[in-house]
Amino acid sequence: MTDDSPPQRISHTDRLQTYSLELPSSTAADFELAEQLRAGIERRERTPAEAQLDNYILTIRAMATVSLSEAEWVRRMHSAGIPIVAQWCEDDDVVTGYGIGIRALQQDGTTDSRPAILLDGHLPWDLRLTALREHWDDCDHARERARAQWLHMPASGEWDRERVAFTDPALWKRASGDAAVFNEYLRTLAHRNRGEWARAASRVAGVLALWARRTEGPAPAVMAAVATQLGRSTQITTHGMRRPIGENGFPAADLSLTATVLTQLHTGYQDPPDESLRLLQELLISIKLIITAHRCRGEIHHVSRLTDACIPLHSVCRALHVRVQHNPPSARGPQGE
After folding, report:
1. Residue-wise pLDDT tens for the chain (337 aa)?
2. Helices (H), strands (E): how many in the chain?
3. pTM value?
4. Radius of gyration (C-alpha) of the chain in whole angstroms
């Protein structure tokens, strides 16, 4: 026997309660406000201090994403101009955290003469040292080198990864291929696996932050803005950020090769538009998968925030597409000249 009664209409108040949001009774009839509250949309300008902290976080995440060890990350942080100090455990002389030196912005736009130390416990979860170490080499030799780096007694050499510059533009294809493999891995994840999706958002945010440093310079723009918003998607969990192992017994895809290419491929020539487009398309697919996972979990505020942030990035993608159409790969030299 079928039920021919009309479907029950869901009120805006009920819809808000679905996402654990409350609607003030005095505005219950205000459709526009109800929709904004349901989606969790915030419309306000960020203060200079907030923007400064966002830039610090972008750099920390970028350097962490491209690094394979703790010692390498510390070196890259110093090279990026961010003062970083270790938090030591007094009992066993072990580094348990870190702090970064921040020169606070004054109301008149000047910076404080003495930097304040911001401890990693006040940073996003994926940027705390305990979480970062889940993605790095943790063998005895790596730990010894990290300790020496913290003590300012490094055994640096010409073969440190950050000293090696690549010159072959063909590596762009390797980068986009690495991103495609990463997306295949994301498609295997259950949407309820918050830890893995938070980790994925962190990795994509790190790659976009690296690309922003490569192309946008000291004035963060489109890619940096999307990286900042993706970073907020890492805060849905406080656990489960360990790098997973794939079916073949090796660590699962995590965009490490993509990060390395964007960081260390020589910038003395113009990045090829066709390969840049291919890589950007793969990263947009990654973001779309992350948004879908948020939507399936009912996290509408994350969906709205990331969707809005990606609008300028889609414009960059279209502009690259136009450039490729007017200058196809076959019309250029072997190095994109």
Report:
1. 444 444 444 444 444 344 344 434 444 444 444 444 434 434 445 667 777 888 999 999 999 999 999 999 999 999 999 989 999 987 777 899 999 988 766 666 666 667 788 899 999 989 999 999 988 998 999 999 999 999 888 766 656 888 888 888 889 999 999 999 999 999 999 999 998 999 999 999 999 999 999 998 766 689 999 999 999 998 754 455 555 555 555 566 899 999 999 999 987 778 899 999 999 999 999 999 999 999 999 999 999 999 999 999 999 999 999 999 887 664 444 444 4
2. 12, 3
3. 0.79
4. 22
